[in-house]
From TrEMBL:
Gene3D superfamilies: Galactose-binding domain-like, Glycosidases. The lineage of its organism: Eukaryota, Viridiplantae, Streptophyta, Embryophyta, Tracheophyta. One of its GO terms (molecular function) is alpha-L-fucosidase activity. It comes from Hordeum vulgare subsp. vulgare (Domesticated barley). PANTHER family: ALPHA-L-FUCOSIDASE. This is alpha-L-fucosidase. Residues 78-343 form the Glycoside hydrolase family 29 N-terminal domain. Its main location: secreted. Its EC number is 3.2.1.51. It comes from the Eukaryota. GO terms for biological process: carbohydrate metabolic process. GO terms for cellular component: apoplast. Belongs to the glycosyl hydrolase 29 family. Residues 1-24 form the signal peptide.
């Protein structure tokens, strides 16, 4: 072509133009996240799940009468903690690794730990602080100062108040007290309800829906606990054990608060559940919920076993530490909580998967690579391509990597819970298998292994699995907890 550019120059210019168009198009065509598998958690539920360990403080009239369940006829003069120090309680919570602490503001005996305007049966009638004390205020103030979030439990069953059994009058009384607790003490992160009452208790209908709606009106981002939620459900036992299969979803229409016979359903959850209501495992550090002089704390081995069977099974552990009659966490209990918190940090503070390379059956695209399971971030995750015959992810460990005896897996539950069955292989040998994963699944192996490849097969799932983390850890206490 005379008088014009050479053919080679034209080809070069055309290639540059095409590449520029492709780059511009690529900048605006990032692969979007996959569709969620419903139901999915609210932001408040997701933040609650990531706490993993929270604290319960049972303190009240029973502390001074040495019983687990009072009668409602106790003299308020019995309530006289000589050295109550809620800051020390928060030190105990922080030592155990808890970011939220829940106070029993009123137990079944009806005695109120705040000066309620609606009853004389409260700290106002006690000699403590010359009748001017308020345990709820000291508790919430100490929590804020220590950076611990506060929660409250207000027992529906009331053995003291004369209105109990009168449906309208008692529900009005209960709502009035709920209003006091949720307007006087700042932000409350979790409110605890239950339907617990004795077999021979006065017949009483609780207006749970009115209570829940009032809570939402007063504190919009709070999480509400009860057998059936609406935000957090009971796990179905007081041992601190979730089911080996544990779904966050249930059908709330299948659950009546306080009903017997629903424990197994609560423990396992429901893969076909339409409501996201994750479980909370409540258990006391001592045999009883309240302090008793002749009781001692569970050994570290038992607390770690509880941790693996609650946090390690898609649950939040609610650990009770009862203050004594002086108003302090017993010294031996405090030491055990510190020991427990230190042990969890020791086990999980070092991830032996660090330095590994991850590969997977496939990758959805940029932003969803296999390596996301190793980046230590909650919001990132590996996502495979859809419609594969089998999904797996594998870690290839560096030479000389240390042995491990705990395998940790976490789903990106913000987009739903998906894994129904999984298997773990080390150098091609099966070492663990299970069903659900959820927020976190922990497998303790019978003995330490030093394999170079760790592969997880997702044998059954509801849609492609989304995995936010795979970790490997060494538990030096394993001989104690197996």
């Amino acid at each position: 072509m005379r008088g014009g550019p050479s053919a080679s120059l034209l080809c070069c210019c055309l290639a540059v133009v095409v590449a520029g168009v492709a780059e511009a198009a690529g900048a605006g065509t990032r692969v979007p996240p996959p569709l969620p598998v419903l139901p999915i958690p609210t932001a408040a539920q997701l933040a609650w799940q990531r706490r993993e360990v929270i604290m319960f403080f049972h303190f009240g009239m029973n502390t001074f009468t040495d019983v687990e369940r009072g009668t409602g006829a106790e003299d308020p003069a019995l309530f006289a903690p000589a050295a109550l120090n809620a800051t020390q309680w928060m030190d105990a919570a922080a030592a155990a690794g808890a970011s939220l602490a829940i106070l029993v503001a009123k137990h079944h005996d009806g005695f109120c730990l705040w000066p309620s305007a609606y009853t004389a049966h409260s700290v106002r009638a006690s000699p403590w602080r010359a009748g001017n004390g308020d345990v709820v205020r000291e508790f919430t103030a100490a929590a804020r100062a220590r950076g611990v979030d506060a929660g409250l439990y207000l027992s529906p069953w009331d053995l003291h108040d004369h209105r109990y059994g009168q449906e309208i009058a008692y529900n009005e009384y209960y709502l009035a007290q709920l209003h006091e607790l949720l307007t006087r003490y700042g932000k409350v992160w979790e409110i605890w309800f239950d339907g617990n009452k004795g077999a021979n208790a006065t017949k009483m209908t609780y207006h749970f829906q009115e209570w829940f709606d009032t809570v939402r009106q007063l504190q919009g981002s709070i999480n509400i606990f009860s057998d059936a939620g609406p935000d957090i459900r009971w796990v179905g036992d007081e041992k601190g054990f979730a089911g080996t299969t544990c779904w966050s979803a249930v059908n709330q229409s299948s659950i009546t608060i306080g009903s017997a016979g629903i424990e197994k359903y609560l423990n396992d959850g429901d893969p076909r559940g339409t409501d996201w209501v994750p479980p909370e495992c409540d258990v006391s550090i001592r045999p009883g919920w309240f302090w008793h002089r002749n009781e001692t704390a569970k050994p570290l081995s038992q607390l770690l076993n509880i941790y693996y069977n609650s946090v390690g099974r898609n649950c939040v552990l609610l650990l009770n530490a009862p203050p004594n009659a002086a108003g302090l966490i017993d010294g031996a209990d405090l030491a055990r909580l510190r020991e427990f918190g230190a042990a969890v940090k020791r086990i999980f503070g070092t991830d032996l998967a660090n330095g590994s390379r991850a590969r997977a059956s496939s990758e959805r695209g940029a932003g969803f690579e296999a390596g996301k399971v190793l980046d230590g971030r909650d919001g990132t995750y590996w996502a495979p391509k859809a419609e594969e015959k089998g999904y797996w992810i594998e870690l290839r460990r560096p030479a000389g990597a240390r042995p491990f005896n705990v395998v940790r897996m976490q789903e990106h539950v913000a987009l739903g819970q998906r894994v129904e069955r999984h298997e773990v292989y080390v150098d091609g040998v099966a070492v663990a298998r299970g069903t659900t994963v959820g927020h976190k699944r922990l497998h303790r192996l019978p003995c330490p292994v030093a394999g170079t490849t760790v592969k997880i097969w997702f044998a059954a799932r509801r849609g492609p699995p989304l995995v936010s983390a795979v970790g490997l850890h060494f538990d030096p206490y394993a001989t104690d907890v197996m």
